[in-house]
């Protein structure tokens, strides 16, 4: 599911309650079997990834059989080029996972699917590719299942391009299936395409993982400005919740803490992601 990961991240993801030495032994055993391999970047950090054999075996596991494994890096340079964004997305996942463990909520390492693809036009190849889709169940008296699209930004794209991602979600929200011919008449369904995938449209959560505090504050304002200026986004926000925060804040305080700025109502006080 993930292109690559470090030993420490894999340990926290799967088995944080055992000593990390056991994780290292398991990884080395898998490497000896030719199931995984490692690329070293920056002269020190090892990035594990599946080999061709590993992807073939993984495809047979029922838990992830519906997913296609991303290709392995060809060499350490390619691994380094891809690693920063891949690891930032994984760090966001770990922040939610650690918070869920503390709160007693139902959220496991398989409840986060990277690189979710949806077409946003019936004709052509125009598509929405979310960095991840999260499925999270809040336990307790008011038990509820929440889904969220996750976008992780490392400040490598312009604010305009980042805001364009929000517009892509709005286009997918409004997309209707292509008309079908019934008894010689073209019939257009009024049920949007997204309802074929989700019982309710997922929240949209932006996590800012790059740039300083001032740069991130500007990106928050840019996203909020687009929400006010785009009729398509405004229409989506009549029923869809959305927010933005920094990776540092959800790592330090947890995603359930009041660290999220609403994109629907710029004047609203910051809150937890479930309360957006």
Note poorly predicted spans: none
The structural class is: alpha+beta
Question: Major sheet: order of its strands?
Answer: 3-4-5-8-9-10
- Summarize the biggest pleated sheet: 6 strands, mixed
Number of helices: 8
**Residue fraction in strands:** 15-25%
**Helix and strand run:** HHEEHHEEEHEEEHHEHE
CA(first)-CA(last) distance: 28 Å
pLDDT average, as an integer?
88
Radius of gyration: 20 Å
Fraction in helix: 25-40%
Instruction: Give the tally of β-strands.
Output: 10
Quaternary state of the chains: single chain
Form type: globular
Features:
two-stranded antiparallel sheet; globular; single chain; 276 residues; six-stranded mixed sheet; alpha+beta; 8 helices
Description:
- This protein is of the alpha+beta class.
- It has eight helices and ten strands.
- A six-stranded mixed sheet has the order 3-4-5-8-9-10, with helices on both faces. It has a two-stranded antiparallel ribbon with strand order 1-2. A two-stranded antiparallel sheet has the order 6-7.
- A hairpin with a 7-residue loop joins β3 (about 110-120) and β4.
- The two termini are about 30 Å apart.
- The relative contact order is 0.10.
Compact summary:
With 276 residues, this protein is an alpha+beta fold.
Secondary structure topology:
Elements: H1 7-14, H2 20-32, E1 36-41, E2 45-50, H3 52-58, H4 76-103, E3 112-119, E4 127-138, E5 144-153, H5 159-174, E6 180-182, E7 185-187, E8 203-208, H6 213-229, H7 231-236, E9 242-246, H8 247-252, E10 261-262
Parallel strand pairs: 5-8, 8-9
Antiparallel strand pairs: 1-2, 3-4, 4-5, 6-7, 9-10
Helix pairs in contact: 1-2, 5-6
